[in-house]
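Holo prediction — magnesium ion.
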Amino acid sequence: MSKRTIVAMPGDGIGKVVLDEAIRVLDAAGFDADYVHGDIGWEFWCTEGNPLPDRTLKLLEEHKIGLFGAITSKPKDKAASELAPELRDKGYVYYSPIVSMRQRYDLDICMRPCKTFKGNPLNFIRRGFGGTIEEPQVDTMIFRQNTEGLYGGVEWTNPPDQVYDALMTHPKFKQNFEWCPRPELAVSTRIFTKKYTTRIVRAAFEYAKSKGFDAVTVCEKPNVIRETSGMMLKIAQELAKTEYPDIYVNNTNIDAQMMWLTKNPETYNVIVAGNMFGDIVSDGFAGLIGGLGFACSANIGPEIAVFEPTHGSAPKYEKLNPSIVNPIAMILSACMMLDHIGESQISNRIQQAVADVVEEGKVMTYDMMKLPGKQDVIDKGAATTQQMADAVIKKIVK
Ligand code: NAI
Ligand code: MG
């Protein structure tokens, strides 16, 4: 296969640190690729009025695969005040470059794996019968619809006439909200389309089939949100009937699912949900397997795919030198990229190396030691970001 070119978009804060370390691990594992740098993030908002410059979009369109660190976002007013003086009052409005990337390139399938690493001191434990302590082995892939639903961006405060009039045609709106003065009314929509709902549900079934799992859990709220959650459940039931007869459709409500999270997380291997509930349930599961230092993700579209840790830019750690943050979430995101482009052997080798380092327990970043994140954690025995990556590299079996 010809050498791959990967668009490396470090972004802001710790995004820069963890992406460099992940690339070092990829190199050491024998992944032969060129990396081209893609500008993204706060710096480009401040200096150009655009956190996702066109030149970065061109690179993504050309090379199709992106590895992304993290970006910093700030509230509207703060964003406006940090804009370069010559760009102020020119109509620039800040937007999230990652949300925009997902929508522009139809990166509609978000995969967030949550898998227990043996020996991780952050693993969730629970009390079993008779006072025993159990450590459930979580192995869950969450499929989150990434472009629609509550994060679709179709929303208004003080909705315009046409929208308001349309809402008033709904008997429930008239009955429950007519009393509210329009300027005091905020509306966010939750739009699901059959096409994209089918794509995410199918992705979940395909994954279950490929891994030999016999159930897919639709985690929504169809008893209350009948139209959208109901659509996802119905599509799943139809697909199971017509195309995946060996896979059972389990139906949970997001609120109950969060309650069951700590009761029996090991029984859920494949979960599919809309944008917001997928975000919630994947953060919940990530908490059981080590939290932000371990939570990786993929954003996959028909042509382009971008891989990123779920954590942000953690600005309070940005200036620490040496860096202390955990690079594992970024390294595992890089493994998801390898799986996506058919380099599963290299991916497996890296994942095994991470598992070995965690199980051995000699090298731990501050989060794994449950220390408050300050520079002095190194004196207390915590590994630096670089030392953690080095430990993984050392364990890679060639
Ligand atoms: P954050 O994820 O950056 O950090 C929250 C806390 O989690 C940190 O203070 C740290 O204690 C811990 N943490 C995060 N990553 C870690 C790692 N690799 N190793 C060890 N500990 C880690 O979220 P926060 O503080 O809410 O947001 C900071 C900035 O990041 C904001 O500007 C926010 O908008 C942005 N953000 C960007 C995301 C992205 O790029 N996809 C996602 C989430 C937040
Ligand atoms: Mg989140």
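READOUT: Residues 279, 283, 310 surround magnesium ion (ligand 2) (CB under 6 Å).
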